[in-house]
Amino acid sequence: MTRYAIDQSRNALIATWSAGIGDTAITVAQLSTDIPADHALRLAKALSELSLACWRCYTHPASAADTLDVNSEGWRRQGERDAFATVLPALSSPNLSTQNSIIQSYIHVEECAHRVGRALHTINDDKLTAEVVTDVTAELAAAERAELGDLSGRARQAVILSREDASPVQVAQANVLLRKNPFGSDRLFTELDPAAAAIAAAHWLQAAADITSEHTGLAPTQIVAKADDIEALPQGTLSQILKLMELGAPPRQAAMTLIREALRVAEGETSSLATLKQRITATEELIETWKDRDPRLSPDSLGLRITTLDPTRPAANLLEDLLTGIRACCLIYREYSLDDLVDDDDPDNDKQELEDEIEAFLDWLRAEADDATHRLI
Fold first, then answer.
1. What DSSP letter does each residue of 196-242 carry, written as one string?
2. Which of 14, 46, 62, 314 has the smallest C-beta neighbourhood within 10 Å, fewest atoms?
3. Which of 144, 115, 120, 121 is nearest to 13 (CA)?
4. What residue spans define the domains of the chain?
C-alpha cells in the first residue's frame, strides 16, 4: 500500500511505497501555509487508509473466494472492488454532516474515499483537491495494473504484498526466471508478485525433489530431513508443501493453501479446526518425547505455531523457503555423488567434478521442469 505523510521541512504532502529493495517517495502537493497541521495530518491518514482498502481488493480478490452468492465473502469482496468507480466522485463530493448525522457506506473502499473527501472539504483548497485526485487516480490505476500482472511503475509495490490468488502472467514470468537460475535471483523478489513466484518455485521444487529422489533412492520428505542434518532448513514448510504435491495438489493449490492459511492468521483467525488440532497434537507429542531431557518443557514454554509461514509476509516467506528447498535438493544430489568424485591426490580435479555435478543437476532439473509445465496451468 501507499503511505502518505507530511514533510514538515517542506510543508508538503508526500506519498511513499515499497519497491521491494527500498521505498520510493513522491510529492503529491505543496501545502499552503494557511492549512492547519492537524488538518494536513488527517488528510494524510485518510489517504493511507484509502490506499490500504484499495490494495486489499488486490490481495483478497473475489476470485479467491468460494462463492459470489449474495452476502457471501466473495460477494462482499466484489462489492469492494466495484467501489473503485465511486472513489474519485467521493473525493470531490463527499457525504457531509447534516443535522448532526452523516451517511456512511458499508463498503469500506467507498467510505474511505468519502473520508478523504471530507478532509479535503475541511481544508477547502481547490488546487490541493485537484492534486489529490490526480494522485489517487494513479493509485487506483496501479492496483488495476497489478491485477493484470503488470507490476511496472507504481504497481511495483505489489512485490511486498501477499495475495490470495496469482496472475498467470506473473507465474509464467517467474517460471522463466527460475529456468535461468533455478536457485533464485533478486528479480523474483523485486519485480514479481511473491505469491506467483512461490507457485512457480513450488513447481521447480517438485521437479528438484523428483530428480533427487530418483538419483538417491530417497523419498522427497527424506531428502528434506537428510539435508537438514547438513544445514538448517525450514522443514515444516518444505515437508508440508511436498506432501501436498505428492497427494496430487498442483503447485498453485499447494502454495496458496499455505499462503491463505497464514493470511487468515494475520487477520486474527485460525486455520481449520482439523489443522489446529493436528498442530496441538504434534506439540504435545514433541513435549512427551523430550520432557525427560528437559523437564522445563511445557506447552507454554514451547509455544504453538498456528501457521507454518510468517503471517506478516507469507508469500515472500514461502518463496524464500522453496528456493532453500531447491538448493537442499542439489546439496543431497552432490552428497550422493561425493564418494565417487573425491580424489585427494588432485583437489582441483575434485572441485571441477563437483561443479560438473551441479551443472548435471541443473540440466536434469530444467528438463524435468520443462516436461511438467502443465502443472503450472
1. HHHHHHHHHHHHHHHHHHHHH---HHHHHHHHHTTS---HHHHHHHH
2. 14
3. 120
4. 3-159, 168-271+306-376
CA dist 93 and 90 (Å) reads 5
3-state secondary structure of 167: coil
Per-residue model confidence as pLDDT tens for the chain (377 residues) = 999 999 999 999 999 999 999 999 999 999 999 999 999 999 999 999 999 999 999 999 999 999 999 999 999 999 999 999 999 999 999 999 888 889 999 999 999 999 999 999 999 999 999 999 999 999 999 999 999 999 999 999 999 999 999 999 999 999 999 999 999 999 999 999 999 999 999 999 999 999 999 999 999 889 998 998 888 899 989 999 999 999 999 999 999 999 999 999 998 887 677 777 777 787 777 777 777 777 777 666 666 678 889 999 999 999 999 999 999 999 999 888 765 555 555 666 667 777 888 999 999 999 999 999 999 98
Cβ contacts of residue 83 below 8 Å, gap of 6+? 105, 107, 109, 110, 113
Alpha-carbon gap, residue 114 to 130, rounded angstroms: 15
Residue spans of alpha helices (H) in 95-193: 108-123, 126-147, 168-180, 187-190
Measure CA 68 to chain center. 24
Max CA distance (Å), the chain:
93
Question: Kind and range of the H or E element at 37?
Answer: helix 37-59
151-368-220 Cα angle (round to 5): 95
